[in-house]
Amino acid sequence: MCPVCHGDDYQSEWFAGERMTQFEELLADAIEEREERASLRYRIRARLYRRTVRS
């Protein structure tokens, strides 16, 4: 059986929709992770700034 089309059970529209759902989930996860990292970078910069201002 073909791993892409699954032989006679090929339903291109269903697979395309399923793939788009998977890609949207991956994209949402990547955006969320990026926002978390940005927040961490902001907190680190703020702490470093406060330390340099106090010195």
Q: Which characteristics define this entry?
A:
55 residues; single chain; mainly alpha
Describe what this molecule looks like in 3D.
This protein is mainly α and 55 residues long. Helices cover 78% and strands 0% of the residues. It has one helix at residues 12-54. The chain starts with 11 loop residues before the first helix and ends with a helix.
In short:
With 55 residues, the chain is mainly alpha-helical. The protein is 78% helix and 0% strand. The radius of gyration is 22 Å and the shape is rod-shaped.
Helix content: over 70%
Q: Count every helix, treating DSSP H or I runs of 4 or more residues as helices.
A: 1
Q: What Rg do the Cα atoms give?
A: 22 Å
What is the mean predicted local confidence, pLDDT? 78
Note the overall shape.
rod-shaped
Uncertain parts: none
Largest sheet: none
Could you state the order of secondary-structure elements as H and E? H
How are the SSEs ordered, and which strands pair?
Elements: H1 12-54
